[in-house]
Specification:
By secondary structure, the protein is α+β, with helices and mostly antiparallel strands. The protein is built from 8 helices and 14 strands. It has helices at residues 12-27, 40-44, 90-105, 119-126, 159-174, 183-191, 239-256, 271-279; strands at 3-6, 50-57, 60-70, 73-76, 80-81, 109-114, 131-142, 151-153, 195-201, 207-215, 225-233, 261-267, 283-293, 306-308. The two termini are 29 Å apart.
Length: 311
């Protein structure tokens, strides 16, 4: 009998092995031993804003799933099960577990990133009320030296300054979607030394934008990569110029950190932001579809300049 329970720390090596094998198999990788995939089991397990679930039978781990909370917004993944057990209904149990967690958290807008070409994946998540909406493009460009943008690094701040900045990010994201809150993600990034946060300032030293960036292979980025897990600028007049400056600041952080490439996700419903990334030299590496519950835009709508990645 298959049961679903909280993932335990002792499960992590096998959970990561299953994640690696499941995605490598889906992608058709010829040599799984040479396939790199982010260490999601380790970067997400135990984080203050993440709940992790395991499926098991007779003491053997069969798969896992992770629910992430950004205030009133939640997403799940990576969902993985052993390839030899695909189509056995285990994935449905793990989706049910994160759906229940979203309910207990009071999540108002839930979502996920999945493979746009896979009717199987879209059909599975549709059973739980998730609707396919716009494509999310995972885009990349080379790192570059700092330009003229006025930006700084969260890691260089004092403890009191960090607290003030966290509050400022909350005030900014509230303007994007009611209750959106990235402070747990910021604290996890810092506590686990996964990367740094870019802070963009306007003329009167007010926070104009920020980007939570993973750096290198021990994070969710990869060797030589600066991965923007979330980034946003204050909406309103001048937002597009600020967004361009934020993109440049992320590329500069990558360069200063010894990375060669900056990677960021953009939902194409944010059409002005998507076009701005193309104009700044970003090119799509892979693309998937964002699925939402309920079937509404959330913060993926025209006029908002937000980077995110729900993988």
């Amino acid at each position: 009998m298959v049961t679903v329970r909280p993932l335990a720390e002792s499960d992590l090596p096998e959970a990561q092995r299953i994640i690696h094998r499941a995605f490598g198999t889906f992608f058709g990788v010829p040599d799984l031993d040479k396939f790199w995939f982010p260490r999601y089991a380790y970067t997400r397990f135990g984080a203050e804003n993440v709940a992790a679930f395991a499926a098991e039978r007779d003491g053997a781990l069969l798969g896992s799933n992770f629910a992430t909370r950004w205030g009133s917004v939640g997403f799940f993944g990576p969902l993985s099960t052993r390839p030899d057990l695909w189509d056995a209904g285990i994935g449905q149990r793990l989706v049910a577990a994160v759906s229940d967690k979203f309910e207990s958290w009071g999540i108002r807008h839930a979502g996920l990133f999945t493979f746009a070409q896979s009717a199987k994946h879209v059909g599975l998540y549709g059973k739980f009320g998730f609707h396919p909406r716009f494509l999310t493009a995972i885009m990349a460009k080379p790192a570059q030296p700092a330009g003229t943008s006025k930006w700084s690094r969260y890691s260089e701040l004092s403890e009191s300054e960090r607290a003030d900045v966290e509050s400022a990010t909350r005030e900014l994201t509230e303007q994007l979607y009611d209750g959106l809150d990235l402070r747990g993600e910021i604290r996890t990034l810092t506590a686990r030394k996964l990367g740094d946060m870019v802070l963009l300032w306007d003329g009167d030293s007010k926070l104009a934008g920020f980007a939570i960036c993973h750096l290198g292979p021990e994070s969710e980025a990869g060797d030589g990569i600066c991965f923007v897990k979330f980034g946003a600028v204050r909406p309103g007049s001048g937002a597009q110029d600020c967004f361009t400056a934020l993109l440049d600041a992320c590329a500069a952080l990558a360069f200063a950190s010894g990375m060669t490439t900056v990677v960021a996700g953009i939902n194409t419903a944010r059409e002005e932001a998507y076009r701005a990334m193309l104009a700044r030299g970003f090119r799509t590496q892979i693309q998937g579809v964002a699925m939402h519950r309920p079937n509404e835009p959330g913060y993926s709508r025209p006029g908002l300049f937000v980077l995110d990645d729900w993988r």
